[in-house]
Amino acid sequence: MTAPEDEVLARLRQERVLPLVALDDPVVVDELCSALMAGGVSCLEITFRTEAALPALERACGIDGMFVGAGTVLTVEQARSAAAAGARFAVAPGTDDAVAAACRELGLPFLPGIATPTELGHALRLGCLAVKVFPASSLGGPAFLRAVSATFPRASFVPTGGIDQDSLAAYLAVPSVLACGGSWICDPESIRARDFPGIERRALAARETAA
What we know:
Number of helices: 11
Strand content: 15-25%
Helix content: 40-55%
């Protein structure tokens, strides 16, 4: 079930951190979500980077209390699959007009990716209220976000790429940042090793920083 865009943006601003995962096995979803929620994080982005993405997304969307989005949504077909699976929002590393139009038709809030002011302006003209900034650290980090915020005051950002526990607070201090996305909480090594206590600890540390 999709959610109104305002509801999605409000939830992201409440969560402040958005763990990103690419899963090879949907079986881990239950323990992964349990670890995140035990650490105070109830938002998750599952990326369309693996064959297990869709079943993992369907499974996560069925877990009570989790607010789940689909990531790396690059095609109209993926947007439709994400909406059918129950994703509450969709995210992409770039801005594709056809994907944006499909998400609008589906009622699926869409956060396209941008890396320049020109791309940001285009995304806003498409009607997107918030964008993913990727790769955030390579673009200039919090300083870049403050600079573009001054000229695009209506825009809200979810920076992703190179963010970790040490840099999280600096990004969240930018008023236009809704939440920070990243894989440091649910890093691939921890998922493969089933180190869910470690994921819980990192989730808790992120939430404490965001408080």
